[in-house]
Amino acid sequence: MKMVEIIDGGVTTPQGFKAAGVHSGVKYRSLDLGLLYSEVPASAFVGYTSNNVKAAPVQVMMKENSEKLSAVVVNSGNANALTGRRGIEDALEMKRAVASALNLDPLEVGVMSTGLIGRFLDMHKIRYGISRAAGALDSGREADGLIAQAIMTTDTIKKECAARVRLQDGTLVYIGAISKGSGMIEPHMKVLHGTTLSLITTDATLSPKFRETWQSILDDSMNMVSVDGDQSTNDTCILMANGKANGKCADDDPEFIDALRTVMTRIARTIAKDGEGATKLIEVQVTGADTKDEARKVVKTIINSPLVKAAIFGSDPNYGRIMMAVGNSGCKFSLDDVRLTIKGGDMEVPILDSGAPIFQEERAVEVVRMAMDNKEVTIMVDLGVGKESATGWGCDLTYDYVRINAEYAS
Amino acid sequence: MKMVEIIDGGVTTPQGFKAAGVHSGVKYRSLDLGLLYSEVPASAFVGYTSNNVKAAPVQVMMKENSEKLSAVVVNSGNANALTGRRGIEDALEMKRAVASALNLDPLEVGVMSTGLIGRFLDMHKIRYGISRAAGALDSGREADGLIAQAIMTTDTIKKECAARVRLQDGTLVYIGAISKGSGMIEPHMKVLHGTTLSLITTDATLSPKFRETWQSILDDSMNMVSVDGDQSTNDTCILMANGKANGKCADDDPEFIDALRTVMTRIARTIAKDGEGATKLIEVQVTGADTKDEARKVVKTIINSPLVKAAIFGSDPNYGRIMMAVGNSGCKFSLDDVRLTIKGGDMEVPILDSGAPIFQEERAVEVVRMAMDNKEVTIMVDLGVGKESATGWGCDLTYDYVRINAEYAS
Questions:
Q1: Which of B402, B404, B407 to mutate to test the interface with A (most CBs of A within 10 A)?
Q2: What residues form DSSP beta bridges with B180?
Q3: What pLDDT, in 10s, does the model give residues B272-313?
Q4: Which candidate from B79, B84, B230 shows the least CB-CB separation from A306?
């Protein structure tokens, strides 16, 4: 049997976690405040946005740098970003309200916000929401669903994932994850110092040493997603490991790492797929790069190109734009050696031969259009220089992206 | 009187220049081949794209690096990019055809292409076009207009500009310019080694030493335009100075430099204004930066943000996105000191006070919407760190941008 098994589940699937999602009134109607709770203090691993304009909750959490968290509160509808000192006070107050409701130290409480930038929180509503959520904490699929919904903004689908994996010591552990994120998405989250918010829970045991592995997993998953190239002020990804499965420390357990990577990659793909207005998921695989950094840079330049994204929206076989993006990445390659392949559905179409396209006739170009006319389009670029590779995910640029973002604040 | 005077004119306004624009058949109906000719060999200053995937004409011109040019041929409809060795042969053949028609050395002939990437040129049509254009060379406003039209792709307006300036030695010189460019626009043109194509003519005298000044003017004008952040494979900007006004060398003449800068800035603004699908011109002025590079980086991060661009399209007062972009630029500043002002029409609205927005009430935010509801919107950011500044131009992100680019090749 494969060690990692994806199962139907969410953040309360691992033992000892409870969650709630309620309506506080920050948003007009929908759920807008989520609370996650671990029965025992969990080792916390956090990744924060590297945007220099950091939201108040990010600033607060980075400063406190808690190694253990027992609860995380998340509100949607208002990012508490660009809110000055009052914003910092409000984020601290959110932590205190949770701590008092659950009998915790405020340092054990994580806080995240997402939504409109540049407005003060209505703390009256937030306090009311926290007290409701604290009373509603529960485990099971219903609770999973409520918290996943409460953190959504322009997301059109709930982003949940869970996995079960048997560690090398025989312990069966669970990983659960929820995430939100649809626009303002190109996280570069750093562990030591995305607006995608993610909460990952596990009943495995992890030590502070796991931090490095956590950064590398973030770099290959969440940090390789881009909807619009705009890194948020609020991106935060929290992994809570409460050890309730009573296994050995899983820091170096390849099965655990593989399972976590699988969950994080799934979440990353879901965010890209649900990018604002997206009709297609674009996966970019770059191989043959000189360095890992160069491979990543080529992936990012392709998935961030509005021209590539619009062409894929229209299934317009304008592959020249992909090469334009490769050239703009600033990476090392010789055009004669580059191989470009476009894959969609059952079709895998090689495009280049010695620096020039194979297809010149209109009819031949039609096969490229057919490959692009799929819900998932994969662009494969082999730079032919070295051995490093990277994979990233984005989405097409559509009329709906423009519509959503031309009327967001209104 | 002001020394620099903008006048009605084009590339043949300076003495000794002739131009033609014809239909060769590369495009279905419209003019698609332009030819510019100087009666005497002109000192040539060229800026080329720094995209690593360079179109064949760019590769050819960079290799030959001619100090003097007597003619430049430009075709639209096909970029002759990503066309391998055959593309190089075709670019060379274009030069030879012009040289033979005008009795010139092929080294004296510049070549530029713009249009679809990844298709071979139909040289039969190109040769026919060149011979027609050579026969049609003329000076005057009609010829100016024909060549300006012949180099257009998705442009909706002809981009022409001319100026008259009196040098310090008393000589009256003329500068004429045409340009095309609407999409795939974020040129970083380098003189020594931008698809906007521009042809600038002058009857002033310039020496090779003018190269550095030319780079600095390019950096402050064309290289500060971004429609979509996608640098083309073909960007080229050629300045031809034929000395027909018989003035002294104008390399260091402040009046001449000012006039050239004025013309180039006007052309740059026109390109941004006519960005694919654009309804608004966005000017971004950054002041108080620590270094010029940082100032430029902040300008570029703002004008390239799809979220900022879409907000401006919808006159959506979501200024938080502007600060998100400032934060993503990676530049040095303290949020408490940053000043942000949005200007449109008669309105000039300050946004931030000590790191938080001045406006919190919906009604107050309306003034921001009113400022944004103009054909030209100016975003002013004072970083409050140092003394460097930069200005750049972009446009809003609209439904039409998506439409145009989802069906370009088709």
A1: B402
A2: B197
A3: 888 888 999 999 999 999 999 999 999 999 999 988 999 999
A4: B230
- Chain A hits for B399, CB-CB cut-off 8 Å, are 399, 402-403
Q: Are A320 and B117 inside 8 Å of each other by CB?
A: yes
A71-128 pLDDT, tens digit each: 999 999 999 988 889 999 999 999 999 999 999 999 999 999 998 888 899 999 999 9
Using alpha carbons only, give the angle A128, A130, A132 rounded to the nearest 5 degrees.
Answer: 70
Q: Which two tokens stand for residue B315?
A: 């006159």
Say yes or no for a CB contact (<8 Å) between A320 and B81.
yes
For residue B194, the model assigns a pLDDT of 38
Residues in chain A within 8 Å Cβ distance of B83: 355-356
| Cβ within 8 Å, pair A306-B306 | yes
**Whole-prediction pTM value?**
0.83
Neighbours of B252 (CB within 10 A): 13
The residue assigned the tokens 């655990």 is: A256
